[in-house]
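Bench notes, afternoon.
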Amino acid sequence: MNETVFICPNCGMKMNKKEYCFHCGYMSNGNTIDPKKINASLLELYLDTDYNKIIRNNNWPIAGLFGPIYILSRGFYIPGLILTIIDMAISIAFMLFNHAYLFYYMVVFLNFLYMLFNRLVWGSIGNIIYLKLLEGKLKRFKKMHPHNYKLKLQNRYRLQKKSFLLQYIIFGVICIIIFFMIRAKIYNYLGLI
């Protein structure tokens, strides 16, 4: 049987497939892909340099500080919004319970401990939730773009990464304003203010 052998126009090595060269990463569409990433997982391709940081949870302070807003600003708007609403509801319920049954200084102390505990929990689970959501999204993306998903994945995260800080600020400010507005209305209604 005659198998067609493709020669890479970039480096001259034999190519097993016409799609890309395993030696230099040249792709048939003229672009190049990092040869180290040819066998990389979808998460490694997408997260690029942030892969190890997120897998090892080295960015836990960011996930902890922003809590569910971390998920929201990473492009998972519906799950992030649901988690934000749940987080706000639990926080308000805890604060209301404290105000109803405890003295003022104890309330301030317990609210501080709760917020610290809440942020530590989000710091430990924020990346886990993000990675689980991201795996599903990347699998769907691979099904939609079976031939050139590797190059598209690398480019998508680079574009999205530029807007993370802006999204953190916008969503953070909006959520803080909503939280304090709801809290003030409930406190006024119950006569706690």
